[in-house]
Amino acid sequence: MLFDATKVQGDASKVQGDASKVQGDATKVQGDASKVQGDATKVQVKRLDLCVHTRHFNVETGVFS
What we know:
There is one protein chain. It is built from one helix and two strands, in the order H-E-E. By secondary structure, the protein is mostly helical. It has a domain of 45 residues. It has a two-stranded antiparallel ribbon with strand order 1-2. The model has no long low-confidence stretch (mean pLDDT 60).
């Protein structure tokens, strides 16, 4: 009876190892999400520069024209 319990414990360790592998894949996906976030920030800044260059700022009135 004690020998069978040890065998079951060994199988539980194998399942835990598979769970660690899945966690590693989740980390890889998180890294890709960060890359997309960086690209979105770059696009936002580029769009802001375009807006500033196509409009003229009146210093006296503080209004874009």
